[in-house]
Amino acid sequence: MSGRGHWFTRTENGSWQISYNRSWGMGQRYGAQLGGLDAVMRTRGRFLISTAYVDEALSVASQIARNLFQYFAADSEIVPLGAAQDVHPGNVISIALGPNISASLPEIHPIAFNNDSGLSVRNALGVNRTYAYEEGLGAIYLKALPNERLELIVWGYDSDGLRHAARLVPMLTGVGQPDFIVVSKKCAWKGAAGVSAMGFFDNSWQVSGSSFFI
Predict the structure, then answer these.
(1) Residue 64 belongs to what H/E stretch?
(2) Neighbours of 44 (CB within 10 A)
(3) Stated pTM of the model
(4) Higher confidence at residue 203 or residue 7?
(5) β-bridge mates for residue 155, sequence order
(6) How far apart are CA 139 and CA 112, in angstroms?
(7) Which range in 7-21, 114-128, 155-169 is most confidently predicted, on average pLDDT?
(8) Among candidates 196, 209, 186, 203, which has minimal Cα distance to 140?
(9) How many CA atoms lie within 13 A of 204 on its CB side?
(10) Contacts of 135 (CB under 8 A, 6+ apart)
């Protein structure tokens, strides 16, 4: 629970203490961060769309900005991927393309990008499931930001993978989308049946035991 500028936290021995350090919030899901992918729609300011400055990524970023305005009359700003986010009060949507993703992930986050092997997701048992980089591979997932904010990362190994993932950007609230989805080239003809993994994060931003992997 929180007060004016401070938090009441519980120590390991069960006692309560006042804390002014908000860094604990990066490892624990709380407040406006609760919910599925559509939780990113609960922004406290305009959306910041952070994108790689290549044609494919810019096209996706522009389409998302148009959809946000058309369906929600929501303002958004398109900036280069990796631009400072700390001063921005609202939620962030990052558009990344290729294996060398520059969107930073906390060490505790279960999704990681390996330059050589591929995209890996650490399941509830602590085992990494790796999806080799190939045509049509993509992912969309949530990441915590300070002050109860969220970042929605939309990533593709190539333009096909990016567009598969971008189709899953939530444009309706309350539809029950997972917190993370890994898409494959099979999505082009199988739709949702072509996903390689999907599931939810728990309150510590770890993959829940009910998640699905191929």
Answers:
(1) helix 55-72
(2) 12
(3) 0.82
(4) 203
(5) 96, 139
(6) 11
(7) 155-169
(8) 196
(9) 8
(10) 157, 158, 160, 161, 185
